[in-house]
């Protein structure tokens, strides 16, 4: 069976029972992106007398999931302060940091332990596991070699590898914390795949729910696509985010387009509302703190749902979308944070028109400009200043100044101002803070 066919079968044939949890240890992927040459992959082993296992560690960034680290499990504890970057080689990747640890996880400081952690350069050509042109997920596949002798905590010398070792395990930060389900819509019988993060804090206390709806680019059957394409879903489920704002995070995977440029949404918009209603019956969800966010088509669908279900959401974070401005009048008293790029040919004029219409119908709108080249920390401070200047506004309309979201050397053509908006949008913590402050 060729790799392309295998990937298609994996994506379509995911065994996710209706209203039942399945937890896949690894993301269904194709196998056309090995960490080294085919010859080396064939020669690589999963373990040897010194190494028990190798784990590939991935992390999701604004532009998608990347392989960021490797955890090598040794059969005896390793002495941390003797390790050097030159002691290891990772095929087709650049190592930035090496240290020992007592768990298969990255750390600020190393310590003696059974694991050696190799941190990798996230700008490497082969770093990405998510391909936005597919969209497809490649395996987080690595081939490592211990090139020099290293020292065990006992003082024993551990000689260099006899042959390369490839990973047999994969750990996907934050993504693995979501659970995958199917929802059978009672009205239509249509089945919708969805991801749900269930907060770990106080299972009896009612918590808010954040709905994230993806853009057209990841439409398809694989439920992991919406989690790995960018930070729209995972940003709300990170350990830091959950520590500040414990919440359920709902990320449906839509098999067909949600919205079109004729101001229409598909049947999946209403199915999503019925899914939320179903979840409220089964989990301790605070009905007065339901929030929606989405990018592009997901943003457009958020607008549509705000219009047709005006009492559903306590607040909305609208990223890189537009709608018929005259239809948005029911949103004049809604709590919205809008973010678009001035390089977005549709969303920028579209949101200009929407906010102008809302002002005419009583909305208090505060406008502000952000620099997409600024750090996440600076963007968060700048957004907070905009909000604090007019704390009584119910709508904050922020725009990224021209050329600030488009990477250096990249043309603005081809919707770059559009899709690069959400590369940055979900890294702005103060916007999240404002969303969670809102109640019905």
TrEMBL record:
A Pfam cross-reference name: EstA_Ig_like
Organism: Acinetobacter apis
Stored SUPFAM superfamilies: alpha/beta-Hydrolases
Signal peptide: 1-24
Residue ranges of every copy of the Esterase Ig-like N-terminal domain listed in the record: 53-157
Record keywords: Signal
Name of this protein: Predicted peptidase
Matching Gene3D superfamilies: 2.60.40.2180, alpha/beta hydrolase
